Amino acid sequence: MTTFSNSDYNSDNYRKFRPNYQQDLYQLVYKQHTENGANFDVALDVGTGTGQVAESLAARFQKVYGIDSSSTMLDSAIKGNNIIYSVGSAEDLSQFGSQSIDLISVAEAFHWFNHSKFFDEVQRVLKPQGTLVIIGYSFLLLEGQQEATEKTKKLELELTPFFEKGHEHLRSLYRDIHIPMHNVQRLYYPRYGSEPFMRESFTVSHLRSYFKTSSAYKTYCAKFPLANDIVDTSINEMLKEGQLPENQLFDVTWESVIILGHMR
Ligand SMILES: C[S@@+](CC[C@H](N)C(=O)[O-])C[C@H]1O[C@@H](n2cnc3c(N)ncnc32)[C@H](O)[C@@H]1O
């Protein structure tokens, strides 16, 4: 169980302040899925959280299942006529039949899973032409603002010890994890191509709220209830030093990866 399962985790803020994934990312995934001869009947988003990916998949698939081990996160999930959410773990997909799913997605959750159990289940439930897509994002990049990017990275590194075990895989963008599928592709931003998989326009207030959705921030606050707010302190410093535009939107992207794997 992660911090996201705590009943006092603010899942509404997660939905509001976490980024969405660019449509280009989905187009890339669908292109490969089609080339592999797969269908668009049923998709399963594992660790769906508040359903950002499930919502996008629902525009293309007949039916989308979103499962998460946290009912708190699912309480704030984006609704859709063809989306069915349920509490469930990545390691036990027994609510789904063998060879019943065309595409399985995981976004920003894979690092928390027991990988061998998850992959056993993926091999069982995916249809023979099926696709697995894993998305992960790590450090924030403030476009064209080197100093501010370094400062936010410093803040993220300060929070790092307060993540649960598993987070270290995300920091390496899953380079350390073997993916037992066929034709595995790993696409990294910023190294791969020029277009980010994720891009948002943030205000300073959104940036604060984004950092405060982190499970590590929540653990930090519980551990040091009397300390100055670690996020506000860092952002106020950046404002004071003129590294952030106070009343203006600015573009942010993320160091990120898409991993694609197929059944054959
Ligand atoms: C950072 S959130 C990602 C949510 C969403 N997929 C996104 O892209 O924003 C990670 C989610 O994974 C869920 N999670 C963690 N371990 C899990 C597991 N073993 N099985 C299912 N869900 C899990 C958490 O409850 C949380 O909702």
Automatic annotation (TrEMBL):
It holds the Pfam family Methyltransf_11. It is an enzyme of class 2 (transferase). This is Trans-aconitate methyltransferase 1. Keywords: Methyltransferase, Transferase. GO terms for biological process: methylation. GO terms for molecular function: trans-aconitate 3-methyltransferase activity. Belongs to the methyltransferase superfamily. PANTHER family: METHYLTRANSF_11 DOMAIN-CONTAINING PROTEIN, METHYLTRANSFERASE TYPE 11 DOMAIN-CONTAINING PROTEIN. The keyword Repressor does not apply. Residues 44-134 form the Methyltransferase type domain. It comes from Basidiobolus ranarum. Its EC number is 2.1.1.145. The keyword rRNA processing does not apply.
